[in-house]
């Protein structure tokens, strides 16, 4: 159904470029891993836009790590396992909570400036965390500060060659081993980059949905190219919708950080009523999936397209100091966070699942690694704990580089000719196709799902499958092919999982069912769908 390669090519006749390590993507996972790898190796960094375009840049809340004496790895572990709703790998969570603090020290050494208070790092608390353990930068611009520090370092590093505006079409594999990547240059020319190790750091899949906090580039490329290359794809039914993204005419879906609720903001429906006590004892700081569905319920009941977040009890000074980015952004649209109720609605935010890896970031394809949101390390389970994503990228980035040290050099280049004779039929403008796909996902595979809707969604998505028989040549065509690939997997997984857990909610199976469903759904292009057991939780 989905071909092994998206385009026809003959590897022998393409230009070859050799490097030690190829890093695909430029968020925190890509930048950090490239810098660590460059201590010993030549690194090629391929990004489809630029070093400053990634989800990381939009991360506001911060990075979770045990820094304070009142906190402990055990507390952090427990909070992560509870949020993950029974699907976390306890071994992966142990790695995260114990190695996170060292990773943060690495970031600081690389020039990241976190906010200080009285000579100590300023720590904040977010939903479902039992302790204050979130480091932040410039109030609510943590991601932007990390990207600033790391990208400056990356540009100055002579061991790292950066290819901006290049698109990785597919990974080159033979007999379950990865030899590098097929890359398209800005002028359309294709080139084979051969590498001893290939690291996917290509981010998430927010563009599967009509409304998302993710940038335009989050088109599920990594999950889809890894799937075509034979890697295991796990847990993709678990999509986290951020409960509070700005919902205002003319404004993009901008994130109103969970930390705003952490600092005491409350949610109100169209009628001005505070409503979270009807849904959860932790009120506004309940797990994200609970808050997002509560908001959806209120929107349905009041026939409205948004609810309000109310932070007006805080002084203007406090608001400006703690959330300068959010304050400024809202002001651009005539909304004052300190005196107005801000209209918000849920938006697709984070993919919990992805390319399955072991504790050293290696996938089921030899020499292929995955790090950051594209990966499924087992840390997030069915629902990611706020601010664990940045720490995960650093902790597993470090481990991948350790693992690469032990790889023997590649001795050969495979001989591959892919000739399917794809047709040159004019493809319906991809913009239209993409919008249709996003609407299908929003309607049938969103915050609330049921069998009938998911089956309908599958049917509608399958109508687009002919794109794989077409001759693709542009970035947006590849992106659509990747979105379609991931959308089908997500919809099939959501249909298969007949229960509700974490970021996956079925109206027809509203309860969690540990007897039947405390397990992973794993897709493999060659072996089909299988189930993965949980290590003892």
TrEMBL record:
The keyword Metal-binding does not apply. One of its GO terms (cellular component) is cytoplasm. Pfam families: FAD_binding_2 (PF00890), Succ_DH_flav_C (PF02910). Pathway: Cofactor biosynthesis; NAD(+) biosynthesis; iminoaspartate from L-aspartate (oxidase route): step 1/1. Its EC number is 1.4.3.16. Residues 20-390 form the FAD-dependent oxidoreductase 2 FAD-binding domain. Its cofactor is FAD. It catalyses: L-aspartate + O2 = iminosuccinate + H2O2. InterPro entries: FAD-dep_OxRdtase_2_FAD-bd, Fum_Rdtase/Succ_DH_flav-like_C, NadB. The keyword Flavoprotein applies. GO terms for molecular function: L-aspartate oxidase activity. Residues 434-525 form the Fumarate reductase/succinate dehydrogenase flavoprotein-like C-terminal domain. Belongs to the FAD-dependent oxidoreductase 2 family. NadB subfamily. NCBIfam families: nadB, PRK07512.1. This is L-aspartate oxidase. The lineage of its organism: Bacteria, Bacillati, Bacillota, Bacilli, Bacillales. The gene is nadB_1.
